[in-house]
Amino acid sequence: MSEIEKKLTTNFGYLFEEELISEIKELGVPKSFKEDTTIIEVGDYIKSMPLLVSGAIKILREDEHGEELVLYYLEKGDTCAMTLSCCMGQTKSKIRAVAETNVELIMLPKEKMADWLGKYKTWQSYILQTYHHRLDELLEALDTIAFLKMDERLFKYLKDKAMVTHNDLLHVTHKQISEDLHTSRVVVSRLLKKLENERKIQLFRNSIKVLEL
To answer: pTM of the prediction?
Structure first.
């Protein structure tokens, strides 16, 4: 058994029947992506659905001017509901997926998605729960934009990033943060200093340490 198959069994074995795990091992294609690599681009036709067996993925939405906004993160054991919708509907991707850390995926053929919904109760439950969780995260993202001040949005962004990477020391630039939050680098720099003065973070030359998680 390969290392990625072991991770598949560890992360999904308690969710799926043995028969489904066997089909995934037989039909799934292992893929690896380095940190900051684009996995799915806006406008791509989705030919397979990813199961995340290790690492974290950032899901972004792009406006008509090419500006990006982080919607949510995927962690091991997750899949992307938007990708599933594109697979089932044979439509183009409306999101960009970027590797937040080094990532290992198993890509599943879209032809099996509907088949498994009728064949395996655990797959049906997993897909429904995935839609539910992603909807909750999208509503949370909307609430964050609508109701939180920018310094609160920034601190939430840093905490979320630390949690999905399992590391309170973040190697991220002010420019990257401004792009993810759809704001200016000057605003980000000013608010980071404010958060440091409040002892919520600690700023270093090329990294940020989150002190409150």
So the answer is: 0.76
